[in-house]
Amino acid sequence: MSTAANTTAPAAGEKRPPVILCIGMAGSGKTTFMQRLNAHLHAKKQPPYILNLDPAVAALPFSANIDIRDTVNYKEVMKQYNLGPNGGILTALNLFTTKFDQVLGFVEKRAPSLDYILVDTPGQIEIFTWSASGSIITDTLAATYPTMIAYIIDTPRTAAPATFMSNMLYACSILYKTKVPFILVFNKTDVKPHDFAVEWMTDFEAFQEALQKDKTYMSSLMNSMSLVLDEFYAHLKVVGVSAVTGAGMDDFLKAVDEAVVEYDQEYKPELERVLEERRLKKEAEKEEQMARLMKDMAMDEKGKEVSFGGKGHTSTKGKKPLRGMTVDEDDEEEEDDDDEDDDREPRYRDDDDSENDDYEGYRVEEEERRNRMEDESLKRFLAGKRVD
Ligand SMILES: Nc1nc2c(ncn2[C@@H]2O[C@H](COP(=O)(O)OP(=O)(O)O)[C@@H](O)[C@H]2O)c(=O)[nH]1
Ligand SMILES: [Mg+2]
To answer: pTM of this prediction?
Structure first.
């Protein structure tokens, strides 16, 4: 997508095709819509890359490049984990998500030659929208590609104000959960045109009027809820399509272009801000740990001052970098430290000579013992070699 490449252009020649996640209630027409879009893009010589995330679909009317059914057998999952159909679908999606980095690798390889990536989701909407796996998949894709949700709506079944409102509230919850650009796709317009929906969304009074006719107990609740939705509608792109006749496909692609711009201008900067915040937080934590470590080491050093020197001496051998970290160092000693070779001598000579002689004796003895041991093990080693 040219718009995406122009706005952020991370590297010359790097292409990031938009990812379209098709989400919607069971039977809203996600799969049929994907099939139509696939055919439409093929006709335009822009064949999409297709991911099928619905493990329970019996037959796909298009060929998917990556199919969850190749990774997990959902019926087998149901049997093995003793689950019902929904649990089976969710577990299959979870298992698939554990391999998603590999999937992403395949997509990445193909991305430079692609214009669109289409993702079909499980029939039961909440399995994708309210599961950890769904979030992981959405967020992972959205971290790299301009990702958007195409929320497919069964238009004829949404014509009642109460149903319309429920559907919009559901869409609203998904938008606020995922935060990626959102396209409302009113499907099945061959059965019922979606203009009533557009009217309700743009003209608040028209919707109120429709609600008045609806004399159910819900209508007063609906009245107040519809006020909240006004804000939500402002963030949406709305298109009417028919997955069966193919009407509205170009309108949909135009909305995709706009969603890519929205991704670049709103989602991506926010993502970068969050990542930067996380990085700074990690850095601060690291610094704090480092400071704590330094403090501990400084205390160690002090501990040695007491036990090793015994009479106000400081053991500095091999610990020069640490000394700078302790605040109250003895200045005289600091001067003595300039020459490493002289380091040991003054430390033990200055003071009680007998004590230093003892130490010197111990040191020589230790050295001799080590040499003897080394000789012994060398002899054993050579003997072993000869036997071999
Ligand atoms: N009339 C009409 N029927 C449609 C349209 N899109 C899908 N359908 C029908 O709706 C039913 C559910 O479609 P499907 O794609 O399986 O829905 P999914 O569960 O969301 O994947 C099928 O019988 C489709 O033939 C459309 O645009 N117009
Ligand atoms: Mg389907």
So the answer is: 0.72
Ligand 1 site, CB within 6 A: 24, 26-32, 123, 187-188, 190-191, 242-244
Per-residue model confidence (pLDDT) at position 365: 73
Q: How many domains does the chain have?
A: 1
- Give me the CATH number covering residue 175: 3.40.50.300
Per-residue b or e along 145-160, where b marks 16 or more CB atoms closer than 10 Å to that residue's CB: bbbbbbbbbbbebbee
Give the Cα separation of 141 and 128 in Å (integer).
Answer: 14
Among 147, 149, 143, 179, residue whose Cα is nearest residue 10: 143
What pLDDT is recorded for position 345?
Answer: 43
| Residue 365 counted as domain residue | no
Indicate whether 204 belongs to any domain: yes
- What is the domain extent for residue 192? 19-276
The per-residue pLDDT for range 104-115, each reduced to its tens digit, is 999 999 999 999
Q: How far is the CA of 182 from the centre of ligand 2 (A)?
A: 19
